[in-house]
Write a structure and sequence with these properties.
The complex is a heteropentamer of chains A (about 350), B (about 375), C (about 270), D (about 270) and E (about 290).
Chain C lengths: L2 E12 L3 E12 L3 E6 L5 H9 L7 E10 L2 E2 L5 H7 L1 E4 L11 H8 L13 H8 L1 H5 L10 H15 L3 E5 L7 H18 L2 E5 L3 H7 L2 E6 L2 E7 H6 L1 H8 L1 E2 L4 E2 L17
Parallel strand pairs in C: 3-8, 3-9, 6-7, 7-8
Antiparallel strand pairs in C: 1-2, 1-4, 4-5, 9-10, 11-12
Chain D lengths: L1 E12 L2 E12 L3 E5 L6 H9 L6 E6 L2 E2 L5 H6 L2 E3 L12 H8 L8 H6 L3 H18 L17 H14 L4 E5 L7 H18 L2 E5 L3 H7 L2 E6 L2 E6 L1 H6 L1 H8 L4 H8 L1 H5 L1
Parallel strand pairs in D: 3-8, 3-9, 6-7, 7-8
Antiparallel strand pairs in D: 1-2, 1-4, 4-5, 9-10
Chain E lengths: L2 H32 L6 H18 L4 H24 L7 H23 L15 E3 L2 E3 L1 H23 L2 H10 L1 H6 L4 H27 L7 H5 L1 H7 L4 H22 L4 H15 L14
Antiparallel strand pairs in E: 1-2
Helix pairs in contact in E: 1-5, 1-6, 1-8, 1-11, 2-3, 2-4, 2-8, 3-8, 5-8, 10-11, 10-12, 11-12
The chains are: A mainly alpha (about 350), B alpha/beta (about 375), C alpha/beta (about 270), D alpha/beta (about 270), E mainly alpha (about 290).
Bound molecules: adenosine-5'-triphosphate (2 copies) and magnesium ion (2 copies).
Chain lengths: ~350, ~375, ~270, ~270, ~290
């Protein structure tokens, strides 16, 4: 049971954490994130990094789709732009990773703006398919522009480096990826307690009224596209450093669907939802494999039988969650929390 | 047995686009491991085979590798795709403790500088094209060479050998009269067939497919009255083609480095394989080429590990790569019909087989071809 | 008198958490016009939705009590079935099909006649008779109609369905005074000519009490006062809070000199 | 002085003439009301002023300068604020955020500032918060709901939040489209009081569309009547109320006793 | 320029386009009633094709019985999916429902792998194998007959929705479910029928496409490439599906033949982009009402 705190100033009232309980929880979370790589197996570490990358990209897509209401199936394409930028720069210039990542974000943002241009007229699912078109073009460019992208072969790159330090292992990459993910979340959180974020939500809820109330639609839609693709570009750049190889097939359409699913299953227009969704989509297939591992000793043929089963279960989980709670995991989380807040006094 | 086990790992595509092969790869690897343990393992070390399903997705394959290599003391590993082999290369190179091979015959993997610890359990795709083209050349004569068309899928897999293949064709004086790229899998190819109708190649080489659209090309081109000879590379030369196409498959040719399960060839290892397959699943009958590939993979691993241990060395990546490179005129006990020698981390050997539809199987039409 | 609709002590909860109706009862005699008044958020629309079964679409649930239409309990009956049985709900906020033309909106309403063995023809002409303006706009998308025109269309759809009971949720919302009169006259006419009973939810208390024979006033999910329309019109609280007639003199209060404090309602004390 | 001058405005959609040659003025610091039958073009007129509809002909002058060519957001920045006939609140936001959104045009923070929430961005947010709290939330008596999502509010309060949002736009002309539709007498009285107070305390001209004649006649200084897209009368409330054209097209006889007789002949007879 | 070749290519493209149109019809019918793009259409097609395989291949039922049986099976599947997984989502935002269809796609793929294994398959041939000549132009028999069957079905649908109340009920439901209920429209039934008839069209298309292109658990991807068609035609227009289907089929084939297979997708998506700039709701799609 928590008791509300009285606020002295508006600043305190608008802070991200409005109670000391929340601050303690957050500090604890940071501590866990920090300790994690020292305790986790290489596999868990790898998954941690993957989730981190997914969180960045999902948060980006959430800004665009969840908060601004512009459904996009182009996220994988934008990530590809980021990944190729990093790969090309690190091969051809040897710049350190902060520079290459920034460049990846910016180039992806520029492409995002280009793709967003029709969004003033094209809406809803039509827009979603238009962004799908963008990702088809991007894939085409990745595959065919050989001198720059290495064609179907793709590009292999050196590990990320800074001040002579090389980030070769997953352990090292973790310390790039996770801080960036946290930063990305903070940025988004700030965004939605200020002017620009409110404008995004307004456009999502009622675009025409928003315009009459003083929000230039095209400018803000493009801004949302830019920011979202910036996040995607960073995530793509990290992806490149993480796997150290980039090919056109690294960014298939199914990846865009993956991120859209993460946003929706997590809870559209909810940052925590994005995090939960990214973790869910990344980890559940892995977790399901534990089932197979449990069964194999008893039944050697289990892997063959179980893999279609896992596909069925995974699909059923998505369907089931959405039927049970169409507003996503974030809403389920909120319910759980409310339960504990009221806990001793629940009837 | 109290010696430490030797661990074979694998990222195996039991679901997804490549599942049709993955299931048999898995069976081949499993059966070989069981057989080997029945023989007493490797120098008394038992062998364990640890795998995970990947759905043929690179990130899941990588996850499986991290998980397995984290939990086990891995010696060798089976990778399910070219993408995975490339993605994991940096890590494998740094680990210097695992030797890797797998389902990919990608040409790039024979680049020893970039992929020092990865090998190909057969010829790479370019070498397969080489073998096919050599066969085609042998059917013509100076100045009157047959013409050929390449049909391949718009994927990394599909495009892999095309440049090299064209270069090799030019060397042999074979004209490539048409080149067709399609999406993989279920597509309508009527328009492409129309192009073939004009190009009139003597040979069509398919690459990057399993079944469709090979059947459509063959049926439609024959309907048009063309008497083209159709050929394909490893993954396009399974018995599946006969099972699914029936009579229409007659005369189709494939390049295959291993003997087919139901071929008339024999040999101690091939017999052992058949016996083990029969034992593990009496119902299954014929075992596809994926099974042979899995089995052969594990055979090579065993040979490499054994050579390394015999030399009194640790199972590091470098030592195992060295042991692999030392394989020369190796008798595979009938899996491959002639003694084989490793070159650039691959086994550049193969044979052309032809479908006899009424018998329902492939029959050899060439000698074993060992590229040098 | 025989009642076409009886609502007995119902309770309604939204989202399994918010209770909106707390033991509400009312009845609509056959062929009568009954008004249901109440402040915003009192639960008037919720009452209608519980009757027509549309509540379930909004995650609401009738947790107690019973509703009977023509003597039969409506529990578990799907909403479209009730419409076909003659219970038509004209929803708050008009709810015309915006992407359909006026004419297609009327066609959609003919589904209410399913299974009644009546032809579907003729209805449209009747609607155009009542609302000539709709005829001019028959091929226009309903989404582009003005607010008033949309309200006419919503009523027109009810006419097509030839129901036994129409539940009207704020039909005068956003209508010009002349049109309010017109529409209420039409409502009265439908009631008279076709014997259709009408349950009328309204903010415009003056007109509704003028047309209705009986009235209920609800606050906070229950009926606080009810009676024949004339009686209600004379009730002091009703006069003050619903009719805007101040003091004993019966003079209409001016909006210019509204007191900045408010008198407590008697029924709340 | 007239803050808005509308001259010979025409607007049509396909064959529908929403506005035809409409001309009238809105004197500064008045409450001016536009009335007229449904579909007369009142909302369309607002939309023309807001810039959402582009009239085919005619001109709107605001503070002496023509508005043509100015995009809607810019018009909002110039002080043309409004509410909407069908409540257009942003359902995904709290009451407070909805109101703050109204102040959008008066803030400057860009994307980077927003992401960082530091320095000017934060200062600006605080200033707006303070202004909203002091001048609007207290004034409209909505402090108890500021943290609630608007979707869960009763209708009357939603209308009040819309008004609050319009006030946050620091309007010079406040356009209210049917501010008391769907309200009961009590709530209407509250709203009327707010409108009167706003005019007095905020130095704002109110331009209103409303069908509730009781309120319109009581609080308006100036009334224009539209019918079929044309102005059929203009003037003081009493004058308009007497105008036979207006009665015929719009008001009806509005005698409740007479109406009662017509609606309920049986009961009257009994 | 070789006009004969161009003619033949075009003809092949148009015929393939007919099948695209039929798939697009599956999307359109469901979208019309529910405002949801059904991402599982491809998988429903696949399922029906496997059913046909089981009937005609496995049980050796005559293809002329097996086709209708499999098509009905696919339609039934659509109905069951609607009833169990879509109906509980009534009233939720379309995008959540779209996500549910993506989950359904995954379930169907798993089911197919479980029942029929992951091996690629060919359908028993049931269409005449003699080449079809139109004048001098050669046309592969499978696509020629596929085209005819597909068109017949499309025109049937088109006529039904032109001349019956059904279309109105569908659109009314899509526009406002609660209001549709209050008109006496059985919204659940409309949803169900939309899924049944959408799946019916898709199933027929699935069998016809699989008959030319082969079948595997990845078959469903074709559904995604047909999205271009529905967007160009307009998500809720049957006529649009027909015209855009034929057009995109033609364009894709011609681009593939003259530029190379890797240009098929970019070419159609380029056309999509251009069309959306000028017609944001496709060629025949309903414009969203924009008012305040
Ligand atoms: N779908 C819903 N979910 C949760 N609460 C709801 C829902 N619909 C209505 N409510 C709440 O129920 C209460 C009664 O609402 P209702 O719409 O029935 O009132 P009303 O009397 O019709 O008011 P109005 O005059 O504004 O139409 C309100 O407090 C409202 O917030
Ligand atoms: N975007 C549009 N497209 C087509 N017709 C329109 C559009 N907007 C308005 N109209 C038409 O213009 C006319 C005027 O509409 P408007 O909404 O301005 O009326 P109004 O005076 O506000 O009516 P009400 O009092 O009912 O709100 C109506 O006939 C309406 O159908
Ligand atoms: Mg209500
Ligand atoms: Mg209006």
């Amino acid at each position: 049971m928590r008791i509300g705190d009285a606020k002295q100033t508006y600043l305190a009232d608008e802070a991200i954490w409005t109670s000391s309980t929340q601050k303690i929880w957050f500090a604890l979370l940071l501590a866990v994130l920090l300790a994690f790589p020292f305790m986790a197996s290489s596999y868990l570490l790898y998954l941690g990094c993957l989730v981190g990358i997914a969180v960045i990209s999902t948060t980006g897509l959430n800004i665009l789709t969840g908060y601004t209401g512009l459904i996009s199936l182009g996220q994988a394409g934008f990530m590809g732009v980021g990944a190729y930028t990093v790969a090309w720069l690190s091969l051809n210039t040897g710049l350190p990773f902060p520079v290459t990542l920034l460049a990846a974000g910016l180039l992806a943002a520029a492409v995002g703006v280009l793709v967003g241009l029709p969004s003033l007229r094209v809406k809803g699912l039509y827009l979603a398919i238009a962004t799908l078109a963008a990702s088809v073009f991007l894939h085409f460019i990745f595959a065919e522009w050989e001198p720059v992208t290495g064609g179907m072969e793709g590009l292999s790159l050196e590990p990320a480096h800074l001040f002579g330090l090389e980030f070769r292992s997953d352990f090292a990459m973790y310390f790039i990826i996770v801080p960036l993910a946290v930063l990305a979340l903070f940025g988004a959180k700030n965004l939605f307690r200020t002017r620009v974020g409110r404008a995004f939500i307004a456009i999502r809820d009622r675009d025409i009224s928003a315009e009459i109330l003083g929000i230039p639609l095209l400018k803000y839609k493009l801004m949302s596209f830019a920011l979202s693709s910036f996040y995607a570009g960073i995530a793509g750049g990290l992806f490149a450093y993480f796997y150290r190889v980039v090919t056109p097939e690294s960014f298939p359409l199914s990846m865009s669907i993956f991120y859209l699913a993460a946003v929706i299953v997590g809870g559209m227009g909810n940052l925590l939802g994005g995090v939960l969704g990214a973790a869910f989509m990344t980890l559940v297939p892995e977790a399901l494999k534990l089932l197979t591992a449990v069964m194999t000793p008893i039944w050697p043929n289990a892997p063959v039988f179980m893999s279609p089963m896992l596909e069925i279960i995974f699909g059923a989980l998505i369907v089931g969650f959405l039927i049970f709670e169409p507003h996503g995991l974030a809403e389920i989380w909120r319910r759980v929390r409310r339960f504990f807040h009221l806990w001793p006094f629940r009837s | 047995q109290d010696k430490d086990p030797i661990v074979f790992g694998g990222s195996i595509p039991l679901s997804g686009v490549f599942a049709f092969a993955g299931i048999h790869l898995h069976a081949g690897l499993t059966d070989y491991t069981n057989w080997l343990n029945d023989q007493g393992g490797i120098n008394g070390h038992p062998v364990e085979y640890v795998m995970e399903d990947t759905a043929y997705e690179v990130d899941r394959s990588v996850a499986a590798f991290k998980k397995i290599s984290g939990n086990e003391n891995l010696a060798t590993y089976y990778g399910d795709s070219t993408g995975f082999m490339k993605a994991i290369a940096a890590e494998v190179n740094e680990m210097n403790s695992v030797l890797m091979s797998g389902a990919s015959f990608a040409t790039a993997l024979t680049n020893n500088e970039q992929y020092p610890y990865q090998f190909i359990p057969g010829p790479n795709y370019s070498q397969m094209f080489g073998i096919i083209l050599e066969y085609i050349a042998s059917q013509g004569e100076e100045g009157d060479m047959p013409t050929v068309a390449f049909v391949y899928s718009d994927t990394e897999f599909g495009k892999d050998p095309i440049e090299n293949g064209k270069a090799r064709a030019a060397e042999l004086g074979i004209e490539v009269v048409e080149e067709i790229v399609t999406k993989p899998g279920s597509v309508d190819v009527s328009a492409e067939v129309l192009k073939m109708r004009r190009a009139r190649p003597d040979y069509v080489v398919f690459h990057g497919y399993v079944l469709s659209p090979i059947n459509e090309f063959m049926v439609q081109m024959r309907q048009m009255g063309l008497d083209t000879q159709f050929m394909g590379t490893f993954w396009s030369s399974d018995k599946l083609i006969i099972d699914k196409m029936g009579e229409d498959a007659d005369g189709y040719m494939g390049v295959m480095p291993y003997n087919y399960y139901d071929s008339e060839e024999g040999g101690p290892m091939l017999d052992a394989l058949r016996a083990q397959a029969e034992k593990s699943d009496p119902e299954a009958g014929y075992r596809p080429t994926g099974y042979m590939q899995g089995w052969f993979n594990a055979m090579v691993w065993t040979e490499v590990v054994k050579r390394t241990l015999d030399a009194g060395k640790e199972l590091t990546g470098d030592n195992m790569a060295e042991a692999l490179a030392s394989i020369k005129d190796w008798d595979t006990g009938g899996i491959i019909g002639i003694p084989v020698t490793v070159k650039d981390m691959s086994f550049p050997v193969g044979r052309i087989w032809r479908v006899n539809a009424s018998e329902g199987r492939y029959e050899p039409v060439s000698d074993w071809i060992h590229l040098d | 008198m025989d009642a076409v609709l009886e609502v007995d002590n119902i309770e309604v909860v939204y989202n399994k958490t918010v209770q909106v109706l707390r033991g509400l009862s009312l009845r609509v005699p056959r062929g009568a016009i009954v008004a249901l008044l109440g402040s915003n958020g009192a639960g008037k629309s919720t009452t209608l939705k519980s009757v027509s079964g549309l509540l379930s679409l909004e995650d609401g649930e009738v947790t107690a009590g019973d509703i009977r239409f023509n003597g039969q309990s409506l529990k578990g009956r799907p909403p479209e079935k009730m419409v076909r049985d003659g219970l038509f709900h004209v929803m708050e906020g008009r709810r015309v099909f915006e992407d359909l033309t006026v004419e297609e909106n009327l066609v959609a309403a003919t589904y209410a006649l399913t299974g009644r063995g009546q032809g579907v023809g003729g209805g449209q002409e009747m609607v155009y008779d009542y609302f000539p303006r709709l005829k001019e706009r028959r091929r226009q998308l309903a989404g582009y109609l003005s607010g008033g025109e949309q309200q006419m269309l919503a009523l027109g759809r009810a006419l097509i369905a030839r129901p036994e009971l129409i539940m009207l949720d704020e039909p005068s919302l956003g209508l010009a005074p002349l049109l309010v009169e017109e529409i209420f006259e039409i409502v009265a006419r439908i009631n008279r000519e076709q014997g259709t009973a009408i349950l009328l939810v309204e903010q415009n208390a003056a007109v509704s009490l003028a047309i209705a024979s009986y009235g209920y006033i609800m606050e906070n999910g229950k009926i606080v006062i009810d009676g024949p329309a004339d009686k209600l019109t004379d009730n002091e609280d009703v006069r003050e809070f619903y009719l805007g007639v101040g003091g004993k003199e019966g003079e209409a209060r001016s909006y210019r000199d509204i007191k900045h404090y408010k008198r407590r309602k008697r029924w709340l004390s | 002085m007239n803050i808005l001058e509308i001259s010979q405005l025409s607007l049509s959609f396909g064959g529908v003439h929403a506005l035809q040659d409409v001309s009238f003025h809105v004197p500064k610091d008045t409450i001016t009301t536009v009335i007229g039958p449904n579909g007369a073009g009142k909302t369309s007129l607002f939309n023309c002023i807001s810039g959402f509809y582009k009239p085919q002909q005619g001109e709107i002058r605001y503070q002496g300068a023509p508005l043509r060519g100015i995009k809607p957001p810019k018009r909002a920045a110039l002080g043309l604020a409004r509410t909407f006939q069908n409540i257009a609140l942003f359902r995904g936001m709290t009451v407070l955020d909805n109101i703050k959104l109204g102040a959008h045009v008066h803030m400057k923070t860009g994307l980077l500032g927003s992401l960082a929430y530091y320095g000017r961005a934060r200062r600006e947010e605080m200033e707006i918060r303070e202004e909203v709290e002091r001048r609007i939330i207290d004034f409209l008596e909505i402090d108890h709901i500021r943290r609630q999502p608007v979707a869960s509010l009763p209708y009357g309060l939603q209308k009040r939040v819309e008004l609050a949002r319009a006030l946050a736009m620091r309007p010079k002309v406040l356009m209210l489209d049917e501010p008391v539709a769907g309200m009961n007498r009590e709530e209407k009285e509250d709203m009327a009081r707010f409108i009167l107070d706003i005019r007095e305390e905020w130095d704002v001209t109110v331009l209103m569309v409303e069908h509730d004649m009781g309120m319109v006649m009581d609080i308006s200084d100036h009334i224009a009547v539209l019918n079929f897209g044309q102005v059929i009368a203009e003037g003081k409330p009493q004058d308009v109320q007497q105008n036979p054209d207006v009665i015929k097209a719009y008001l009806g006889n509005s005698d409740i006793d007479d109406l009662r007789k017509r609606l309920n002949p049986d009961r009257e007879a009994a | 320029m070789d006009w004969l070749f161009f003619g033949e290519i075009s003809l092949a493209g148009l015929a393939m386009g007919g099948l695209y149109a039929l798939i697009a019809l599956g999307f359109v019918i469901i979208y019309k009633a529910t405002r949801v793009i059904n991402f599982a259409i491809g998988e429903i097609m696949m399922f029906a094709a496997y059913l046909f395989l089981a009937f005609a291949g496995g049980m050796e039922i005559s293809p002329w019985v097996a086709v209708p049986l499999a098509v009905l099976g696919g339609a039934l599947l659509g109905g069951v999916i609607e009833k169990t997984m879509i109906r509980p989502m009534l009233g939720e935002s379309p995008i959540s429902v779209v996500m549910v269809t993506i989950g359904i796609a995954s379930i169907l793929v798993g089911l197919v792998e479980l029942i029929w294994t992951a091996d690629p398959q060919l359908l028993p041939s049931f269409l005449p194998r003699e080449p079809v000549f139109i004048g001098e132009l050669y046309l592969a028999p499978k696509i020629a007959y596929g085209f005819l069957i597909g068109m017949a079905m499309l025109i049937l649908y088109l006529l039904y929705f032109r001349f019956s109340r059904g279309g109105v009920a569908l659109r009314a439901t899509a526009s406002d479910q609660a209001a549709a209920y209050s008109m006496g429209i059985n919204v659940r039934r409309v949803f169900n029928l939309a899924w049944v008839f959408g799946s019916l069209a898709a199933s027929l298309a699935g069998i016809l496409v699989a008959a030319t292109g082969g079948l595997s658990p990845q078959f469903g991807i074709i559904g995604l490439s047909v999205l271009v068609v529905v967007i160009v035609g307009g998500l809720d227009s049957i006529l649009g599906a027909l015209i855009a289907g034929v057009f995109i089929g033609w364009l894709e084939t011609v681009a593939g033949a003259y530029l190379g297979g890797e240009y098929r997708m970019p070419a159609t998506f380029a056309v999509l982009a251009v069309i959306l700039v000028f017609k944001p709701y496709g060629l025949f799609g309903t414009h969203e009402i924009e008012r305040v």
